[in-house]
C-alpha cells in the first residue's frame, strides 16, 4: 500500500498535479494486483486553502500526521506562497521522507523550497529554469546537477517544471508501478499527442 500525501497551500497551481492525482485516486487504469493507493491532502493547518483556480480545499491532515516510511509519497505542487515560513515543516518532512527511502515529487515553485533547503545541491533535478532557481533561491548551490528537461527523477526525488505535469505524472506512476508498462506507454502517448489511436490501445491493455 502507498500513502500519498498531497500538500496544499494558498495559490496552489491546480493543473500541475492534475494528471497524477486523478490517476492515483481513481485507479481506473491500475494493473491487476496493483498495490492499494490512499491519497490524502495535507496542510500546514486544517484551515481551507484557495487554489490559483479559485477552488477551496480543506486538508485531510496536517504535516505532523504524515508517517515517514518507504511506502510514503509526498507530492509538492507549485504555488506563489512557498516563501512563507509556515511551509518549513513540510520541507523538513520531505528531507525525512527522502532519508527513509520514500518518494518526494516536487514541481514548479515547490522546487524552490527544496533548493532553498539544500535538498537539490547534490541531486539531479529540474525546475522552471536554472535562472529561475538562481533568482528565487539564494541558498541554492546545485547548478551542476540541473537538467533542462520538463521532469526528471534522481532516485526517489522527482522534480518538474510548471509545463511538465504530464511527464512528471508518468514518472511518479512508473515509480509506484501501478500501471502495466504498455498501459503507461499508451496513457502517456495519448495525453501527449491527443491521437485517439493511443486511447484505444490504452483500453486494450486493460484486458491483459
UniProtKB/TrEMBL annotation:
Signal peptide: none annotated. InterPro entries: Class_I_gatase-like, DJ-1/PfpI, INH-QAR. It comes from the Bacteria. It comes from Salibacterium lacus. This is DJ-1/PfpI family protein. SUPFAM superfamilies: Class I glutamine amidotransferase-like. Residues 4-165 form the DJ-1/PfpI domain.
